[in-house]
Amino acid sequence: MQTAAIGRRISGSNVTINSIHPGVVDTPLWRDWDTGIRKCLFCCIKCWLAISSVEAAKCSIDLTVNPKHVGVNGLYWVDFKIATPNSDARNKQKQEKLWETTLELVRSYLTEEEMKRINGEVK
């Protein structure tokens, strides 16, 4: 949702933003899943579904360095393909509400100049 909201705001600039779902990745995040049924469940998931962190990074790297993606902005990617997010994530009103709520939460951490840049008032 944030990706779409930001993508609209930076459209036409030389900056791009996209959202990527890498899938189930075999990382140390799973290290504490080491007991009972969780261990069994994880082992099954890891064996059948999990990809390496190198494989998971390939889409991000491709979107970053491949010239064919210049101008591709505000989209959701799964397995190197543009995917359609769920209906809530596509709802522009909800995207804008999330954007405004986020700005309120971070406002006290930003300078007035930064807020103006974020709001497109200063280039």
TrEMBL record:
SUPFAM superfamilies: NAD(P)-binding Rossmann-fold domains (SSF51735). GO terms for molecular function: oxidoreductase activity. The keyword Oxidoreductase applies. Keywords: Oxidoreductase. The keyword Oxidoreductase applies. InterPro entries: NAD(P)-bd_dom_sf. This is Uncharacterized protein. It comes from Dreissena polymorpha.
